[in-house]
Specification:
By secondary structure, the chain is α/β, with parallel strands linked by helices. The protein folds into 2 domains: 127 residues, 2-Layer Sandwich (Enolase-like, domain 1); 225 residues, Alpha-Beta Barrel (TIM Barrel). The chain has 12 helices and 13 strands. The strands form 3 sheets. Strands 5-6-7-8-9-10-11 form a 7-stranded parallel β-sheet. Helix 1 packs across helix 3 and helix 4 packs parallel to helix 5. The longest helix is centred in the first third of the chain and has 19 residues. The two termini are 38 Å apart. The protein binds [(2S)-5-oxo-2,5-dihydrofuran-2-yl]acetic acid (MUC) and magnesium ion. [(2S)-5-oxo-2,5-dihydrofuran-2-yl]acetic acid binds next to loops. The site of [(2S)-5-oxo-2,5-dihydrofuran-2-yl]acetic acid has 11 residues, from loops. Its cofactor is Mn(2+). GO terms for molecular function: chloromuconate cycloisomerase activity; manganese ion binding; muconate cycloisomerase activity; racemase and epimerase activity.
C-alpha cells in the first residue's frame, strides 16, 4: 500500500547549554532545535531536526525561519505525496524551494527515518549499511576561560569520553589565542590531537602570519580560518602546507565541494548534513572529496540528538573518516529529548540498533522544553 504524507509538524525546543559556548561568531547559552515530524497515512512517523548557531549569527537560516518555511512552503508541497519516493520529493523541493539547506536537511532526515522504519532497517542501511558501529567524537573547548577549558579537557580524558579537542579561537587577539593553545597543549600533553576553528575570524594576512605558530604548537588542523567566499585565499593557505586546512562555512553543498576541490582550497572537508542540505547531498559532497583525495571530517551545527544520530548513520557508512567527527552536540546541553540518550563511551558515539534513526522522542520532555510562542 502506498503511504501518503498527511502532515508535517514543527516544534522549536530550547535547551540551555551546560556552560557558555564562546566562538568568534557568537556566545551560546542555549540551543534551539527545530523538531520536524512527518506523518503519513500508514501511521509511520519520521523525525528530523535542524539547528543553527545563535539564531542568525552563523548563517542565513534561524530556527524561526526554518519552522516558518517548513510550515508555509514545504508542508503544502509535500502533503499528499507518496512518502517513500524520497528522490522524487527531493526533486520537487529543489524545483520549488531555493536555499534553506537546514530546513531541507530536517525534512529529508524525517523522510529517511520513516522510510527505513517501514522497511525495518536503519537509516545507515539506506546508504549502503554501516561499516563502523561506533564513530570517534571530538569535544570542543569553548568556555572562554583557559582554566575551565584545561579542567574540562582533563575531565573528558578521565571519563574516556573524548581524546581529541577542537579549540574555538579568533574571538581574541591572535597572540592571546596562542598563549591559550599553549596552556591547553601543556595540560593535555603532546599525544592529544588539538584542532582550531576560526569560524572565519582571521583575515588572510593574519592567517599567513599565524599558521606557522599554530603548527609549532602542534595544532593538527585549522578550520575555516578566513571568509567563506575567499576561496582563492583558502587555496593559497592550503598551498603553504604549514598546517592542514579544513573547509567548513565554505561548503554549502556539492557544488561548493566541487569548486573547492577543483581549486585545491582545502585538505579536509567538514561534512555537515544541514549545511549540505540533507543526508544525500552530504553523501554527494563526500564522494567529491573522496574523488579529489580530500580527507573527511564529520562536522556539527551543534545539533541535538536527532540530527546528530542522523549524521552518525551516514558517517558510519564511510570507509575513511580520517579526521573523525565532532558529533558531541547533545552533550553540550543540560537535557535530552530522547527516551533513551545516545551512547557516548570509549571516545566514541555508538550507533543505536533499531529501525530508522533508532531513537524515540520523549513527548513529556518535548512538551516541557517546547517554545510556546
Ligand atoms: C563549527 O563552526 O564548526 C562545531 C563545533 C563547535 O563547537 O561549533 C560548531 C560549529
Ligand atoms: Mg566550524
Amino acid at each position: 500500500m502506498t503511504s501518503i504524507i498527511i502532515d508535517i509538524n514543527c516544534l522549536i525546543v530550547d535547551i540551555p547549554t551546560i556552560r557558555p559556548h564562546k566562538m568568534s561568531v557568537a556566545t551560546m547559552g542555549s540551543q534551539s532545535m527545530v523538531i520536524v515530524r512527518v506523518k503519513s497515512s500508514d501511521d509511520v512517523e519520521g523525525i528530523g531536526e535542524a539547528t543553527t548557531i545563535a539564531g542568525l549569527n552563523y548563517g542565513g537560516e534561524s530556527p524561526e525561519s526554518i519552522k516558518t518555511n517548513i510550515e508555509t512552503y514545504f508542508r503544502p508541497l509535500l502533503v499528499g505525496q507518496p512518502a517513500n519516493q524520497i528522490a522524487a520529493l527531493r526533486r520537487l523541493i529543489a524545483k520549488n524551494i531555493k536555499d534553506n539547506h537546514f530546513a531541507r536537511s530536517a525534512v529529508e532526515t524525517a523522510l529517511y527515518d520513516a522510510r527505513a522504519k517501514r522497511l525495518g532497517v536503519s537509516v545507515a542501511d539506506l546508504f549502503g549499511g554501516r561499516i563502523h558501529d561506533a564513530i570517534s567524537v571530538a569535544w570542543t573547548l569553548a568556555s572562554g576561560e583557559t582554566a575551565v577549558d584545561v579542567a574540562e579537557a582533563q575531565k573528558m580524558l578521565d571519563l574516556r569520553r573524548h581524546n581529541i579537542f577542537k579549540l574555538k579561537i579568533g574571538r581574541r587577539a591572535p597572540e592571546e589565542d596562542l598563549r591559550y593553545i599553549e596552556s591547553i597543549r601543556k595540560a593535555v600533553g603532546d599525544d592529544i590531537s588539538l584542532r582550531v576553528d576560526l569560524n572565519q575570524g582571521w583575515s588572510e594576512t593574519q592567517a599567513v602570519r599565524y599558521l606557522q605558530p599554530l603548527a609549532d604548537l602542534g595544532v593538527a588542523l585549522v578550520e575555516q580560518p578566513i571568509h567563506f567566499k575567499n576561496l582563492d585565499g583558502m587555496a593559497r593557505l592550503t598551498a603553504l602546507g604549514r598546517v592542514p586546512i579544513m573547509a567548513d562555512e565554505s561548503l554549502r553543498g556539492p557544488q561548493d565541494g566541487f569548486a573547492l576541490a577543483s581549486k585545491h582550497c582545502a585538505n579536509v572537508f567538514a561534512i555537515k548534513i544541514e549545511q549540505a542540505g540533507g543526508l544525500q547531498p552530504a553523501r554527494d559532497l563526500m564522494a567529491i572529496a573522496e574523488a579529489a583525495d580530500i580527507s573527511l571530517y564529520g562536522g556539527t551545527m551543534l545539533e541535538g540528538s536527532v540530527s546528530t544520530v542522523a549524521a552518525a548513520h551516514l558517517f558510519s557508512t564511510m570507509p575513511h573518516l580520517e579526521w573523525g567527527t565532532e558529533m558531541f552536540g547533545p552533550l553540550l546541553l543540560t537535557d535530552d529529548i530522547l527516551t533513551e540518550p545516545l551512547d557516548y563511551s570509549d571516545f566514541t558515539l555508538k550507533l543505536p540498533a533499531g529501525p530508522g534513526l533508532g531513537v524515540t522522542l520523549d513527548d513529556d520532555k518535548l512538551a516541557f522544553y517546547a517554545r510556546n510562542h
